[in-house]
């Protein structure tokens, strides 16, 4: 979004959507786990996580510039897409355990990526 002046006389401002959104960085990694890693990782907990859109978050709370995390989990029979924008910020504001669970799951994903030498989030360049 971009801040623009909508009424120069009174100096009021309004948020408008840009025609072409600007993405400043994006990182995506796919991790395939062995059976042992899968069992150690407790991936089954991911099936119970809620996406941010499923939570009761007041409209008065919002963030513009922050991290977004997307977790996709799949097996032979199921697929789950879980997305949170600025999870830590929302957790600080409303203390929902569902957000804390998502953050903990993401931390385990990053930890597993480092253990398997995937190099997730090491270098954006």
Describe the protein in words:
- This protein has 125 residues and is of the alpha+beta class.
- The chain is 27% helix and 20% strand.
- The chain has three helices and four strands; from the N terminus they run E-E-H-E-E-H-H.
- The chain has a two-stranded antiparallel ribbon with strand order 1-2. A two-stranded antiparallel sheet has the order 3-4.
- A hairpin with a 4-residue loop joins strand 1 and strand 2.
- The longest helix is centred in the C-terminal third of the chain and has 19 residues, at 97-115.
- Mean pLDDT is 75; it is low at 1-14 and 120-125.
Summary keywords:
disordered C terminus; 4 strands; 125 residues; disordered N terminus; 3 helices; two-stranded antiparallel sheet; alpha+beta; 27% helix
Spatial ordering of strands, largest sheet = 1-2
Helix content: 25-40%
| Secondary structure: number of strands | 4
N- to C-terminal separation?
A: 25 Å
Name the structural class: alpha+beta
Q: What series of H and E elements makes up the topology?
A: EEHEEHH
State the low-pLDDT regions, or none. 1-14, 120-125
What layout of secondary structure does this protein have?
Elements: E1 2-7, E2 12-16, H1 35-41, E3 68-74, E4 79-85, H2 87-94, H3 97-115
Antiparallel strand pairs: 1-2, 3-4
Characterize this entry briefly.
The chain has 125 residues and is an alpha+beta fold. The chain has helices at 35-41, 87-94, 97-115; strands at residues 2-7, 12-16, 68-74, 79-85. It contains 3 helices and 4 strands; from the N terminus they run E-E-H-E-E-H-H.
